[in-house]
Amino acid sequence: MQMTRITEQASLYDHLETKSVEELTQYINQEDAKVAAAIKVALPQINVLIEQIIAKLAAGGRMFYIGAGSGGRLSVLDVIELPTTYGIEKGRVNVVLAGGVAQLAEALEECEDDVNEAWTKLSEAQVSPMDIVIGISASGSTPFVLEGLKKCRANQITTGCIVSNPDSGIAAQADFPVEVITGPEFITGSTRMKCGTAQKMIFDMISTTTMIRLGRVEGNSMVNVKLINDKILDRAVLMLMDKIGLTDYEEAKQGLLKYGSVKEAMENLSSKSI
């Protein structure tokens, strides 16, 4: 089946250089408003993918995003927050980025055509059938991602993807594809806009839902947050006070520092004593 490159279709707007600031921001806002609706259509696919991720992580496996360009870089931003926010160990959720995560700020777009790098890096990480690998590509055809997923499937590794065109080659290589069709971009072909916004929203859904289902959240609170700075420490102290009914800030703080996390402190403290 021929892939329809909706992401490359002409913008619905033209003569942009003649528009005022007010007109431009209004039009961009109009286009952005379409993203959540497109994600809503794809929720059944997203839910199935998340269930697979949860199952893999719960069984001791890992998750890997593989991506290039804006989507790959956005996945890095999501993943690097998880150990601090949810207290999971580094290496459970990972990104293989074209050109390397260390080159995140360089925007090495030429690296997306490398057909060997993704599998080479996954192999170095000793990827196995215990893991799940998710390809990120607005076009659905990025060689770096496509060839990486092909290698994964050939090695019995579960695959997923997030793409923005229907019937793509990458979706065909994914056991659990997610197709979020956001339509033509405001600037023709500039998939850092609506496609990038959709990817960020889906990354949030995946990581947040997965961490909740894996028990890293209680109520609506980040009870496993790492105490890495004064702002987070203060937030955690107030959280602990609310959770177990302590009224003395310093008492709660000392208990929190003793046990290292809100969750551990909750399990070891009562409202009466440390």
Automatic annotation (TrEMBL):
<dbReference type="GO" id="GO:0016835">
    <property type="term" value="F:carbon-oxygen lyase activity"/>
</dbReference>
<dbReference type="GO" id="GO:0046348">
    <property type="term" value="P:amino sugar catabolic process"/>
</dbReference>
<feature type="domain" description="SIS">
    <location>
        <begin position="53"/>
        <end position="216"/>
    </location>
</feature>
<keyword id="KW-0456">Lyase</keyword>
<dbReference type="InterPro" id="IPR001347">
    <property type="entry name" value="SIS_dom"/>
</dbReference>
<dbReference type="InterPro" id="IPR005488">
    <property type="entry name" value="Etherase_MurQ"/>
</dbReference>
<dbReference type="InterPro" id="IPR046348">
    <property type="entry name" value="SIS_dom_sf"/>
</dbReference>
<keyword id="KW-0413">Isomerase</keyword>
<dbReference type="GO" id="GO:0016853">
    <property type="term" value="F:isomerase activity"/>
</dbReference>
<dbReference type="GO" id="GO:0016803">
    <property type="term" value="F:ether hydrolase activity"/>
</dbReference>
<protein>
    <submittedName>
        <fullName>Sugar isomerase (SIS)</fullName>
    </submittedName>
</protein>
<dbReference type="Pfam" id="PF22645">
    <property type="entry name" value="GKRP_SIS_N"/>
</dbReference>
<dbReference type="GO" id="GO:0009254">
    <property type="term" value="P:peptidoglycan turnover"/>
</dbReference>
<keyword id="KW-0119">Carbohydrate metabolism</keyword>
<dbReference type="InterPro" id="IPR040190">
    <property type="entry name" value="MURQ/GCKR"/>
</dbReference>
<dbReference type="GO" id="GO:0097367">
    <property type="term" value="F:carbohydrate derivative binding"/>
</dbReference>
